TrEMBL record:
Residues 34-387 form the Aminotransferase class I/classII large domain. This is alanine transaminase. Belongs to the class-I pyridoxal-phosphate-dependent aminotransferase family. Keywords: Aminotransferase, Pyridoxal phosphate, Transferase. Its cofactor is pyridoxal 5'-phosphate. It is an enzyme of class 2 (transferase). It comes from Undibacterium umbellatum. It holds the Pfam family Aminotran_1_2. It comes from the Bacteria. The keyword Kinase does not apply. GO terms for molecular function: transaminase activity. Its EC number is 2.6.1.2. Coiled coil: none annotated.
């Protein structure tokens, strides 16, 4: 029979967070092995529970959740999101500028689908959260990666951004706080990106899903609050700040200079209508979450579990010979570097596969985040301190044996 092949649109799509190495890990689990998973920011499996008031509100409203909602979302949660944009100093947002989605992920794809024609280019950070690169490719566009500078705490390289703009460039993606590096961008850097967008009439897609997961008293600035003459699409949701990944409750806010974007916004409305609506139970959680007690502050503040685990993970990682890591100011991840002399890695996916096989620890290789060199990996520091200590002990043992095998000890 004629083979049935996947679409050519998937040729440049990579999502190794749930890729081949994870499939190997699942096979090993089926065989009875216990795997320590440091590969995905799925908070619930590490006993980070959503606020009880969110859960109770969803339960109480479940009888009202059977029907379709407005294609953009229910009024009450959109009103709560509008108030949140005011707290973030994003001006001029109305109810009609807000789209609720099945997680921010659905809205990322929708935003790109509505925008891109074949050959259109979008500037995406390297490293990035790979869904952004995939969404551009699936929408017929071309992702062009600009460098974030590890030696400058992973800040975007503004000169590199400018050098990669062409007549085909339509937009720039800004992931702040950043996944996978944990970087948090100061106002000065954001203003420079806004100025580039202004000069070249680019749309700014702002991924701010970790805007409350901040350490050491840091504060987050929404890039959309810095200008009214640039078009911004800001994405956020309940998954991380409210430990509600499975509720799939995200939102997208259109702000700034909207007058010249009426046709694009019409496209967004068409796509929102085509999927009918976001899931209703998740929508019922939004108003309560945004207006309730912000328990994330207890987790990231002094004595908080996430802060303790970040500090422990960074300490254990950087104690390993040849491993360096910029300490994250936000989010749930670290993106450490392996000294290429001590660790002459040619294929980092195979490297991570070997680690899994030998030590039962699951990570994601740096190239899975569109980083150009096979010398980084991403760590999730969500397991409790005992499991983190065990995991990093195993990683240290694997790296020691790797150095011995390659004569670089």
């Amino acid at each position: 029979m004629r083979p049935i092949q996947k679409s050519l649109k998937l040729a440049d799509v990579c999502y190794d967070i749930r890729g081949p190495v994870m499939e190997k890990a699942k096979q090993m689990e089926d065989e009875g092995h216990k795997i320590i998973k440091l590969n995905i920011g799925n908070l619930a499996v590490f006993n980070f529970d959503p606020p009880d008031e969110i859960v109770q509100d969803m339960i109480r409203n479940m009888q009202n959740a059977a029907g379709y909602t407005d294609s953009k979302g229910m009024f009450a949660p959109r009103k709560a999101i509008m108030h949140y944009t005011q707290e973030k100093h994003i001006r001029g947002v109305t109810i009609e500028d807000i789209y609720i989605g099945n997680g921010a992920s659905e809205l990322i794809v929708m935003g790109m689908n509505a925008l891109l024609n074949s050959g259109d280019e979008v500037l995406v950070p390297a490293p990035d959260y790979p869904l952004w690169t995939a969404a551009v490719s699936l929408s017929g566009g071309k992702p062009v990666h600009y460098v974030c500078d590890e030696s400058a705490d992973w800040m975007p390289d503004i000169d590199d951004i400018k050098s990669k703009i062409t007549p085909n460039t339509k937009a720039i993606v800004v992931i702040n706080p950043n996944n996978p590096t944990g970087a948090l961008y100061p106002v000065e850097v954001l203003q420079q990106i806004v100025e580039v967008a202004r000069q070249h009439q680019l749309i700014v897609f702002a991924d701010e899903i970790y805007d409350k997961t901040l350490y050491d008293g840091e504060e987050h600035t929404s890039i959309a609050s810095l200008a009214d003459d640039v078009l911004f699409l800001t994405l956020n949701g309940l998954s991380k700040n409210y430990r509600s990944c499975g509720y799939r409750a995200g939102w997208m806010v259109v702000s700034g200079e909207k007058r010249h974007a009426k046709d694009y916004i019409e496209g967004l409305n068409m796509l929102a209508s085509m999927r009918l609506c976001a899931n209703a139970p998740g929508q019922f959680a939004i108003q309560t979450a945004l207006g309730g007690y912000q328990s994330i502050n207890d987790l990231v503040g002094p004595g908080g579990r996430l802060l303790k685990q970040r500090d422990l993970a960074h300490k254990l990682l950087t104690a390993i010979p040849g491993v360096t890591c910029v300490k994250p100011k936000a989010a749930l991840y670290m993106f450490p570097k392996l000294d290429p002399v001590m660790y002459p890695i040619k294929d980092d996916q195979e490297f991570i596969h070997e680690l899994l096989t030998e030590q039962r620890v699951l990570l994601v290789q740096g190239t899975g985040f569109n980083w150009i060199n096979p010398d980084h990996f991403r760590v999730v520091f969500l397991p409790n301190t005992d499991d983190l200590t065990d995991a990093f002990g195993r990683i240290a043992s694997f790296l020691e044996s790797y150095r011995k095998r390659h004569g670089t000890n």
